[in-house]
Amino acid sequence: MAESLFIPSTTSRQEIYDSLVPQIKALTDGESDLTANLANISAALKEAFGFFWVGFYLKKENQLVLGPFQGPIACTRINFNKGVCGHCYMTKEVVIVPDVEAFPGHIACSSASKSEIVLPAFDKNGEVFLILDVDSDQLNDFSKVDAEGLMKVIRIVEGLV
Prior knowledge:
- It is a single chain.
- The chain is globular and about 40 Å long.
- The two termini are 19 Å apart.
- It has helices spanning 13-28, 34-49, 83-91, 144-158, and strands at 53-60, 63-70, 77-79, 95-97, 115-122, 128-136.
- Strands 3-2-1-6-5-4 form a 6-stranded antiparallel β-sheet, with helices on both faces.
- The relative contact order is 0.17.
- The longest helix has 16 residues, at 13-28.
- The chain has 161 residues and is an alpha+beta fold.
- Helix content is 35%, strand content 24%.
């Protein structure tokens, strides 16, 4: 297991994802504990990009429940029909929100959050088992590059269950 990450000194998110994804794969290879892996993935994404908040919400019974994360304290439970994470869970699609204030039903866990990207992860039965939630303190901070890069991370997560 690596104890440090190599983050290229570039402002290109594409280049950072290209470097980071194989490191995340190596970090999780051989580790069977999902919580430990999600914690390290959150830390790696936060370290690489400096996002305001990075974390996971896991499906538990009839809600999304806070899992490993990096950043300020967060909402502990989110109903499936509430907020960006709930919308992602219900639609089973990546959601990019350029301005969280403009998203109907947005849950303001932190007033410093300005934009957000949320991605679902699927189990072997095709059901959403967790959500990756990434917040920025900048408006319109996420793009197709982030969706594609984070989707590669989600594929690693899906391989862990």
